[in-house]
Amino acid sequence: MTDAPATTTEDTAEAFRPEARAPRGFADKRARDLRAERAILEAVSTVYERHGFEALDTGAFEYADALGKFLPDADRPNEGVFALQDDDEQWMALRYDLTAPLARFAAQNWETLAKPFRRYAYGPVWRNEKPGPGRFREFIQCDADTVGSARPEADAEIIAMAVAGLEAAGLPRGSAVLKINNRKLLNGLLTAAGVETQGQKLAVLRAVDKLDRLGVEGVRLLLGEGRLDDSGAFTKGAGLVGKATDAVLDFVQAGSGGRGETLAKLANVIGGSAEGDEGLNELSLIDAALKSLGVADDQAMFEPSIVRGLEYYTGAVFEAELLLSTLDEKGNKVSFGSIGGGGRYDDLVARFTGQQTPATGFSFGVSRLASALRAAGREPGGTARGPVVVIVFDQAHMGEYFSVASELRNAGIAAEVYLGTSGLRPQMKYADRRMAPAAIMLGGDEIAAGTVTIKDLDLGRQLASGVADNAAWKAERPGQQTIPRAELVAAVRRIIAGGETGQ
Amino acid sequence: MTDAPATTTEDTAEAFRPEARAPRGFADKRARDLRAERAILEAVSTVYERHGFEALDTGAFEYADALGKFLPDADRPNEGVFALQDDDEQWMALRYDLTAPLARFAAQNWETLAKPFRRYAYGPVWRNEKPGPGRFREFIQCDADTVGSARPEADAEIIAMAVAGLEAAGLPRGSAVLKINNRKLLNGLLTAAGVETQGQKLAVLRAVDKLDRLGVEGVRLLLGEGRLDDSGAFTKGAGLVGKATDAVLDFVQAGSGGRGETLAKLANVIGGSAEGDEGLNELSLIDAALKSLGVADDQAMFEPSIVRGLEYYTGAVFEAELLLSTLDEKGNKVSFGSIGGGGRYDDLVARFTGQQTPATGFSFGVSRLASALRAAGREPGGTARGPVVVIVFDQAHMGEYFSVASELRNAGIAAEVYLGTSGLRPQMKYADRRMAPAAIMLGGDEIAAGTVTIKDLDLGRQLASGVADNAAWKAERPGQQTIPRAELVAAVRRIIAGGETGQ
Fold first, then answer.
1. C-alpha to C-alpha distances, A332 to A329, A336, B441, nearest whole angstrom
2. In chain B, N or C terminus with fewer CB closer than 10 Å?
3. Which ipTM did the prediction report?
4. What global pTM score does this model have?
């Protein structure tokens, strides 16, 4: 509200009245979702900081040319992003992730940074895509990246942080797993099999990426001539022949078992190309570092069928996957899938500087992580507690009501005086809708007697929902007690503690 | 990085290389500023929640028509804001404050909200203004607002929260004050003096707003015929005559002393218009509520010369002012001025619904509050502590290094293994630049002996800066000790504790 641009209110009935609606694909987040989001960001940030990553926040905008896909001769500079032209004619776009701004920042400040540069960041990113149910155009990411280290140990550390982040956020061990692959393995295998063109390699990656959905035989078709789907549409295949197809299929199925076992299987499949050996060596070093960091086989595994961002990653790739199945709106089991991912992208800083700069990182999708936690039966950030509501019995005693609210706040208890104009019954309803644990009632009699009446609204909600039965229900005023004013804070604390344990 | 749009790296020397630079007016915030920002938001949010305000976060965009000044027939729909046209042709704009989105949200959800609706919000807002040194186009606000209560007690509560927020953020009592006014007082006084036109009233407000800068005589000229400034420019005055001018000047000077004293003075000056009496009555009720809430005269005062957003506020207005003077770059004392403000704006929701909806709120400028805290000698969020850095002596022992880092992290100590490729001396320099409290060194000898060598880098920095003198400096390896590995965590904790107390 500070220095807000002036607005003019039209008094006439003919005044223009805009419709009150949020733009398509943008959500209003209320307390429960924000509590979840903040608890996750706090937990994951703590993990990142404990690993020596420093906080960085870049602005919402980047120049469009710095965002990578928006080369000067692009026809539609705003495709996929929200872009606008600044008054000096330069195109700016809202960031679509936190990695592109990091690459820009690292390139801009490279000479003065302590290297390797380790930073974490969180905040909204924006995608100008078609919105739909559950598909938003603004969402929160939480990333950690290391720029300036080519060591596979840097990848291992990123993986270890992702594992620790999942657990710190509240996902019980065993409910999620980090899946790790290395782009160089498949590249090497394809080179050894005589596949040389980038187009054919990308077609193979696209086929492998469908293993989950189509199974081995579906992928075999896509690796070869192509596949006709149930709707009759034909997808052209990668055009591999014979042994190459078998090698790829052996490769993508090598991921069961512990990391050591998978490494051994992969060594048999890859078969001697320099790039494949390099990928294998990197995975071995990642495995060794993960062991030293205490990351077990059930927390992080090698999974050769993991693909991710086709033209983006240059080496190791990571994906965090929820292992719990969840139910859709119709009650059907659905696999939840990825709750974050990342990998090594050695080319991003080079776009600015021309010099290859090794980089690796991981990004959590915070809303997806919140959904995953709920699927695991955890409410991130805990359950809502409204404020204690002080009921306004009599305007003459407003001072008393404010004193009571202050007393509770000073004791660390959220409290408010009802500030509407309605009578007692709507006030009690208000307190209930605010999820107040208790309502405080002070009439002239109580004030004269130095007492205060407290109504336990948690108990009221339990009675209403059938959780509590018994004597309380039969009492004329269930959960209501009149006590000396000096005992107010202690009594409210008891009610709040009782509500938290469900008593 | 999740699902980032693909980027293509050009390998040729002729490839387009964008310049790495942040857009004009957008800042990259590093750890120190973020620590300050987060500490302030955490402290102020806690105050807001304790007063029963619930968190709300609306999206970055609003439809331009919902933002108030951007009516459909405006010539330049993007003046003052960052606006773009969505693919359905609707104009959207990034929010320029947190109040306009609240008004939209309240209008959109009015039927289903528990009322009065009390919400707090924080986040970036964007202004498409000319950037300059210290003038950004993106900054963080932190607001609390009550929608649906016309009671002056709702204003008092907002004021009490602003006072509590300043202290919770770390500003010592006495270093800032809330100044309160009510638009109705001056309106009433002007009506009583025969001033009827809105234009003349605004001219009076503009004149009053310059009291700080021009003094009483300057304002007297602006209230009358006009004023010629030192540069020879003439500002046309409000055109008041005789007694009206004196009344306004008496009014704006009534603010010294406690709230009760000011109320008494104002009662003498206002002189009987209905609107003036209404304003006076509102201030009396605000004073009474502030007393009950424990807000003293030195924390919140009535100041009739406070103006704020001319066409925006409809009743009470508030401004938080830092009382400490600060030094500019040249070492001159400068008054710091406002670190937040707000007031009652009863017309904003009505833009959508046509029905007047009383609302009041306050907004902290978070960067300004951080600067104010630094002016008061407090570093918000505390001083930077880097991670403990484990030095890589020998590639063969990477596993040991990762174990040491894990052990420290599990004890809650930030730690990292150096992951670059440089030798010992650059590694020590890296640790120093990261503000590491200690460096850990493990060679083959130490590993064989079950020991570890720790270098106290805090001590090193103190020695270098002359804070510590003496024996340590003369020692061959100051601050370096070799201890049993089992004592690692305890020894690092001692070093960190010593650094924090400056020992």
1. 7, 12, 55
2. C
3. 0.91
4. 0.91
